[in-house]
Amino acid sequence: MSDLIRALETLEETALGSLDGASDVDSLERWRLLVLGRRGSLAETLKGLGTLTADQRPKAGQVANRVKASLEASFAVRLETIQKEVRRLELGAERLDVTLPASPRPRGSLHPVTKIRREIEGAFARLGFTSVEGPEVEWDQYNFTMLNIPPDHPARDIQDSFYIDGGSGTGGEMLLRTQTSPVQIRTMLAHKPPIRIIAPGRTYRNEATDASHEAMFTQVEGLCVDRNVTMADLRGTLTAVTRVLFGPDREIRFRCGYFPFVEPGAEVDMTCHVCNGRGCRVCKRTGWIELGGAGMVHPKVLANVGIDPSVYSGWAFGCGLERFAMLRYGIDDIRLFYDNDLRFLRQFS
Ligand code: DAH
């Protein structure tokens, strides 16, 4: 019986001695299997309990329990010590500077045409104009006929149209709108004067593309209808907006121009924003840059939408947004806008 107790105590002593040598988690686990495992040295030694007599057993059992508890407690302490040490080394090795800025996330940017569009909307909003939209698939009736461009009118040839196959109905044939001017008709049919709107959006023409022509492009239309609206109001409004977009020194001029839905009609130019009107490469030495078309809404157009031309008058204008973006950012080819080349688009972020 004292043999077993002595064996247990010797086991405890040697096991505790070797525990100090276990310096990492792996060697500690090996120690646990060798000493405390199901086939470990403690289990082996305890097999001796079976050979003892009934009155010897309690004493030996007590010692066995104490040794087991002592070994398990020492194991737990050692494990904690090693884990703490591992953590300390890890923390020392992987330093984390929480004051560093976060790594940048890829971020998109607004398309240059969107930027110009928003600037124009902002400039007109300050003058009391609401920005409205119309459909890109439009009735012939709104795109042409009600704008005083009847079916046999030569102006239809200037704006080669994409017609929609099988698209005909109450508004005549369907087409991709060739201009934003039909939004004038839609607005005047839906609202009584006073009307002050701009209508930006995409337009389509079936024509060969080159550096200054695209089959799809963007226009912005403007419309003001009220009592006593004059061409001077048109001039004042366009001057104010041009100065917001291209600088406070800009002057504008009207040249005679023909558009079926206005009378009188005008082509609008501004003094070149690069040379201030002296003449340079951008304005082709003329000092002037073309902005778009404008004029007083034709009485027939007002009558077409049920507005009495003897009571009301109005002005309208229309211009291309890509051209503005090209002038502003020095872009020399309109086709770049819709190529989706990130190297181009990233320059506007
Ligand atoms: N819609 C015309 C075009 O695409 C531009 C235009 C000219 C619009 C004169 C107007 C205007 O509202 O009054 O060429």
Name its key features:
single chain, alpha+beta, BirA Bifunctional Protein, domain 2, 2 domains, seven-stranded mixed beta sheet, three-stranded antiparallel beta sheet, rod-shaped
Assembly type: single chain
Distance between the termini: 88 Å
| Helix fraction bin | 25-40%
- Strands in their spatial order, largest beta sheet: 1-5-6-10-9-8-7
- What do the pLDDT scores average to? 93
Largest sheet: 7 strands, mixed
The figure for the number of domains is 2
Gross morphology:
rod-shaped
Second CATH tier, the architecture of the largest domain: 2-Layer Sandwich
**Unreliable stretches:** none
Contiguous helical run count:
12
- The tally of beta strands, per DSSP, is 10
CATH topological fold name of the largest domain: BirA Bifunctional Protein, domain 2
Radius of gyration: 43 Å
N-to-C SSE series?
HHHHHEEHHEEHEEHEEEHEHH
Structural class: alpha+beta
- Which small compounds were modeled alongside the protein? 3,4-dihydroxyphenylalanine
Give me the CATH superfamily of the largest domain.
Bira Bifunctional Protein, Domain 2
Which CATH class of the largest domain is shown?
A: Alpha Beta
Strand content: 15-25%
